[in-house]
Amino acid sequence: MIDALGSPSSLLLVGGTSDIAVATAHRYLAERPLRVVVAARDTPRRSAVAAELTAAGAKVQVVDFDADDPASPGRMVAEAAAAGDIDIAVVAFGLLGSADQLRTDATAVARLAQVNYVAPTVVGTELANQMRQQGHGVIVALSSVAGERPRASNFVYGSTKAGLDAFYSGLADSLVGTGVSVLVVRPGFVRSKMTEGLDDAPLATTPEAVAEAIVTGIRKDRHTVWVPGAMRWVMSGLRHTPRALFRRLPI
Amino acid sequence: MSDGTLPAPHPSHARGGPLQGAVPLVGWGRTAPTRAALVPVHGDDDVRAAVLAATGRGVVARGLARSYGDAAQNAGGTVLDMTTSARVLHADLESGLVDVEAGISLDELMNRFVPQGFFVPVTPGTRLVTVGGAIAADIHGKNHHVAGSFGQHVRWLDLLTADGQVRRVSPESDPDLFWATVGGMGLTGVVLRAQVQMKAIESSRCLVDTDRTPDLDSLMTLLAETDHLYEYSVAWIDTLAKGRRMGRSVVTRGRFAKLDELPAKRRTDPLGYHGSVKASVPDVFPPGLLNLATVAAFNELWYRKAPKLKRDQLQSIPTFFHPLDAVGGWNRIYGPRGFVQYQVTVPFGQEEAMREVLDRLSSFGTASFLAVLKRFGPGNPGMLSYPSPGWTLALDIPVMKGLAGLLDSLDEVVIAATGRTYLAKDSRVRPETFEKMYDRLDDFRAVRKQVDPDGVFTSDLARRLGL
């Protein structure tokens, strides 16, 4: 259960090896011990994350999850819920892809759409079913400012995040009154393993800052958070920039 | 059911759907809403049907929802609304023994029996609690130091257990089940009926002495030295006073007046009684209105207006026992994020721990109104019953940044002093902390395992604390 002051007793990390997911677990563990379910492919990185979170005081459970496998989300949610209610689920998996490759490689585009859009909608549906039955719970979905207005430099990625964002925003409204809520998180450029080797964009942020925004957003019962907060106003400006001008912006 | 149910945004949820009649429910603190099917109870059969049909999410009974946290919530499961089962079944006006359905409120008991010369044996700061809830939380009042808690005035109770059977349980017939149920937060079964020993009174007026104390030391000394002279005793502390004035308080203590102690004009109707809600807080209360400045001003005024010392003042039952009941829905003043009540007790001899808790709460600077301090008398055999000999402190705190960490660290102080927190007020204690507070928790779990092996009776509180 999430208590009166917003502290959960369990946390499911879907895409459990993502830097933002791990930072969120650490942020909660700094306050209290809790049960953390790490859902990810069976990789050395998953074992490392499990060990790291155990050392930080978590009761860790590891569950297989593969975004390429259509049957995986249902199985994963069932396994995660078998040991008790899922208080908070963080949907944090995704690929950035190579913008150059995605411009021409249809197979790569299909894969990106599968991992970044199709799988998250299936996961969201399974989580909502589970939490509706629980009568409580919070789903946190990692969207991106890139989905707010896709730009030429990475529009395929942006379009998948736009789809994900629309799905979870709508899911949030459909769950009103069920005891379940959804928090859509829109970070800007996050310095993480996903963006390793890329140059910082303006207003670049960190997984820790995103984790902080998630925890605060849940405590304040928010539906959307931008990280950093100023991104909201930047993107609001960009969204209303005339197309002819937007296309020429160096972003 | 008028309290603690949030308006369901989709009317369709109230009819049909997978969870029939499902509504979001909260406690008095209006925090952590969860959804459950709320089933009105009109007799034993309704309860039995709900219990036998329970899914994996279980069942818990709910009264007037005055528990601050999640005790009467059951996410995804069934919550029985007991307030529809609220009759007086039998009353013996010689002995003061009354047989009632569990959903009856103390308010109704007073309306019925004060004019006949009987007061409830124990009342908390609100009379809007049910008898079932009073047993489940083993509530205490201003007379704990002489009368103990509510469970000690229950002669028997009818408990519907997980097997659908109704058992009449008394402290003699089945002490383990009785004392697991008293204070057991509804987790042993559903209390359907109980026999309560009422207290005989000659008048409905209280003779009240008021003292003002300038700091915590003088307060504790006054209470320790003279509490035994009074039947009812409580102190209200200004939590915003710091430094030298920390713990400045107004102490009100008294007893029911005898007939010949009333002024002549009152003797014609010595048992006259009117308990009513005079005003209500609007549903939308401006959140900014409660801030450090306005609350400090209120507390200052309240302290100054109290007499330094006053003796034998006649007060009505609502004025002396239930001042906040005059304002309906006062829990709304803390705004949409709700509030928590922190209530803890530490044994006598651990006054320093109490001082540290109060000191840290004062310096945290929450816009808290008054805190309540009281001395408990001996406890009872209730396995999860809260009162035990020592000091108990309670205060309301609006939900704010940093509060979770502060209260967690205060819990450490309380544990070190072998103290505990009150489940009826709790909405945030850590499960591993709670484990250290009640030394008879294992006995409670053993009884529960025996009468409810499949864990049919559960609640958000039970899940949160792994009870």
Automatic annotation (TrEMBL), chain A:
<dbReference type="GO" id="GO:0016491">
    <property type="term" value="F:oxidoreductase activity"/>
</dbReference>
<protein>
    <submittedName>
        <fullName>Short-chain dehydrogenase</fullName>
    </submittedName>
</protein>
<dbReference type="InterPro" id="IPR002347">
    <property type="entry name" value="SDR_fam"/>
</dbReference>
<dbReference type="Pfam" id="PF00106">
    <property type="entry name" value="adh_short"/>
</dbReference>
<dbReference type="InterPro" id="IPR036291">
    <property type="entry name" value="NAD(P)-bd_dom_sf"/>
</dbReference>
<comment type="similarity">
    <text>Belongs to the short-chain dehydrogenases/reductases (SDR) family.</text>
</comment>
<keyword id="KW-0560">Oxidoreductase</keyword>
<dbReference type="InterPro" id="IPR020904">
    <property type="entry name" value="Sc_DH/Rdtase_CS"/>
</dbReference>
